[in-house]
Structure formats: structure tokens, C-alpha cells
Write a structure and sequence with these properties.
With 180 residues, this protein is an alpha+beta fold. It is built from nine helices and four strands. The longest helix is centred in the last third of the chain and has 17 residues.
Length: 180
């Protein structure tokens, strides 16, 4: 299955902002996959290897141990006032969940526009739909893992970053289209 997201922007995004959109989508996808899928849910090693790999925006790899058929593939097509991102996966359930997450962020845009990162994060984390899509299963899974406090903080930050990156004030709207 393939979904195309179109991010409309107020101006051409600088490279820092542009390069955060694909990893934001990837992190949200993998966080859901690893916390819900029976193949990964009980696998502490995959979570630990993901933490050890790190969460730099330059890393464009699936968490180590993710099966090839479970991975998401992202293509980016930037233009002056929009960016198209095509996300493809053999797991339509998780791709649709990603789409629901992104479209919910867009629906909430008027409530967080102009707010700083902390205010946006708090507002979005309190939203029942965002909570259901992204946080419920992930938070329960993080509590089950035997992680040190620094690892919990690193993972929590990595999960929260997509909320900030996809709600940047330069992004004025998001649409999605199922391509296949």
C-alpha cells in the first residue's frame, strides 16, 4: 500500500525542516508497529537495538531486527510551497494508522498554530485521538521494558519529536491520498 502526503508550506522549507518530515513519519510508524505487532511487541531486544542505533534525522533505517516486509519506504519530493511524501508499506493497517495520526495533527492545526514546542507537545499529547493512535500502546510497552531512565527519556523524546516536527508553523496544511 502507498499513501501520498502533501505538506503545504508558507514558503520553501529550509533543509533542516525538510529533513525532519520523513523521520517523523518513520518514527511514528515504527513506534506503532513495534508496540502493537505480535511479532515485535514482546521483543525487548528490538527496542533496545533501536535505542542503541539512535534517533538522528540522518538515520533512515528501520529499527534493527525489523523484517523487510514490515518496513516503511519513504520518498520525498520537495517544491517551492509544498512537499510530497510517499510512504509505502506491506502493512496497510500501520500505514492507515500513520495516515490517521498525520491527518489528526492537521485537523488540530488551529489549536496549536503559533504556540511554542512545549505548548504544542502538551496540547497534542492531551488529545484523545493522538493518545489512542500514538501513545497508549507505546507507553504501556515502554513501562514493560527494562530500560534505564536515560533510555526511557531518549525513547520518549524520539516518539514526541514527530509531534513537533509535523506541526511546524511553516506547514500550513496536510492532505493525503491513497495511491495503491
Amino acid at each position: 500500500m502507498q499513501i501520498e502526503f502533501e505538506f503545504t508550506t508558507s514558503r520553501t522549507l529550509d533543509s533542516t525542516r525538510l529533513m525532519k518530515i520523513p523521520p517523523a513519519l518513520e518514527r511514528a510508524y515504527y513506534a506503532q508497529l513495534l508496540s502493537i505487532s505480535a511479532a515485535y511487541k514482546e521483543n525487548d531486544d528490538i527496542w533496545l537495538s533501536w535505542i542503541q542505533m539512535g534517533f538522528s534525522t540522518a538515520i533512515r533505517e528501520a529499527p534493527p531486527g525489523t523484517a523487510r516486509e514490515d518496513r516503511i519506504r519513504i520518498d520525498t519530493e520537495p517544491w517551492d510551497r509544498w512537499v510530497k511524501i510517499r510512504a509505502e508499506s506491506e502493512k496497510p493497517h500501520y500505514l492507515r494508522s500513520l495516515e490517521s495520526f498525520v491527518m489528526r495533527l492537521d485537523a488540530l492545526r488551529p489549536s496549536y498554530k503559533g504556540k511554542d514546542e512545549e505548548a504544542r507537545r502538551n496540547l497534542l499529547a492531551a488529545d484523545s485521538e493522538i493518545n489512542q493512535i500514538l501513545y497508549q500502546s507505546i507507553n504501556s510497552r515502554i513501562q514493560e521494558l527494562s530500560l534505564r531512565p536515560a533510555e526511557v527519556k531518549l525513547l520518549t523524546t524520539a516518539i514526541n519529536d514527530p509531534l513537533i516536527w509535523l506541526t511546524d508553523d511553516e506547514i500550513t496544511g496536510i492532505s493525503s491520498t491513497v495511491l495503491s
